[in-house]
Design a protein that fits this description.
One of its GO terms (biological process) is protein folding. The model has no long low-confidence stretch (mean pLDDT 82). The chain is an alpha+beta fold. A hairpin with a 2-residue loop joins strand 4 and strand 5. 66% of the residues lie in helices and 16% in strands. The protein starts with a helix and ends with a strand. The longest helix is centred in the first third of the chain and has 92 residues.
Length: 204
């Protein structure tokens, strides 16, 4: 009986040892898997952090480039605007000196009209010719932006009028232009020559 029981006991012991060994192997494999997973997780975390930093850097670079592009566009617009203003200014006032020289011609025509006796038949034809010349001259300069400043009966404006004196007048408000001694002119809205005027004042 005892001889037969020994092989069975030995067999059970071997099976137990095998099971224990298998369990140890399984535990060891699980520990290795856990270590591998932890190591992979750490590697992934580091990689994700690197990628996140790269994305942040790229976004910052993109924003910087956008800011540069906006500044360049704004500067280009300012240059274009300044150039357009200079061209407009040069176009408007290129004839300023030439126009100023023409004023004496207009003044002489107007003086001639004032000094002609319109009742004299001999001078009437001359007066008509001078008057037509004067009107044509004024019409021509108006095409190039010149305008006559003739403030007869208007309030005195120191921006466009030059007061040559003052006279008492009870019929008009004070500081009213009584008469124009010499007409003024503007070129494209800019004063070329002020009108020389006599201004009213209240009686003392």
């Amino acid at each position: 009986m005892s001889t037969q029981g020994q092989p069975e006991d030995h067999k059970q012991n071997q099976e137990t040892e095998v099971e224990a060994g298998a369990e140890q192997v399984t535990n060891a494999a699980e520990e290795i898997d856990a270590d591998d997973q932890q190591e992979q997780s750490e590697v992934l975390s580091e990689r994700e952090a690197e990628l996140a930093q790269q994305v942040a850097n790229l976004r910052q670079e993109l924003q910087n480039e956008r800011d540069k592009a906006l500044r360049v566009a704004a500067e280009a617009e300012n240059i274009r605007r300044r150039a357009a203003q200079e061209v407009e200014k040069a176009r408007n006032f290129a004839l300023e000196k030439f126009a100023g020289e023409l004023l004496s011609v207009i003044d002489n025509l107007e003086r001639a009209l004032q000094n002609i006796d319109h009742d004299d038949a001999a001078q009437k034809n001359v007066a008509e010719g001078i008057e037509m010349t004067h009107k044509g001259f004024v019409h021509t300069i108006e095409k190039f932006g010149m305008e006559v400043v003739d403030p007869q009966g208007q309030p005195f404006n120191p921006q466009q009028h030059e007061a040559m004196g003052m006279q008492e007048n009870a019929e008009l408000p004070a500081n009213t232009v009584l008469y124009v001694m010499q007409k003024g002119y503007t070129l494209n809205g800019r004063l070329l020559r002020p009108a020389m005027v006599m201004v009213s004042k209240a009686p003392e």
